[in-house]
Amino acid sequence: MEKRNLRKTRQGVVISNKMDKTVVVASRFKEIHPIYGKFVLKTKKYHAHDEANDCNIGDTVQIMETRPLSKTKTWRVVKILERAK
User: Fold this and answer.
1) Strand segments (E) across 1-85
2) Confidence band (pLDDT; 50, 70, 90) for 74?
3) Whole-prediction pTM value?
4) Which of 18, 23, 41, 77 has the most crowded Cβ, counting Cβ within 10 A?
5) How many angstroms separate the CA atoms of 45 and 25, rounded?
6) CA dist list (Å): 74 to 17, 34, 62, 79, 84
């Protein structure tokens, strides 16, 4: 039986849900500056597949890497961790 590699997971906030079955998730992380040594807050956006169109703007979600579903979409929503208030 073939063993599958571990898939990357990210956690972020939904910033757009205007597309059909697709959400844009913004993931924030800290990175150390190469020269000054300070921590810099950075944001990366991911297009994620949302099969049931459940996610709304402001929801905190967990996404997982998957095979390419379209030109920009290679992630899928695993679960909604917290609903927007």
Assistant:
1) 9-16, 22-32, 39-49, 60-65, 73-82
2) very high
3) 0.87
4) 23
5) 6
6) 16, 29, 14, 16, 24
Residue 83 and residue 59 in contact, taking contact as beta carbons nearer than 8 Å: yes
Contact 59, 82 (CB under 8 A): yes
Please give the Cα distance from 5 to 8 (Å, whole number): 10
38 neighbors 6 (Cβ within 8 angstroms): no
**If we measure between CA atoms, which residue out of 10, 19, 7 comes closest to residue 60?**
10
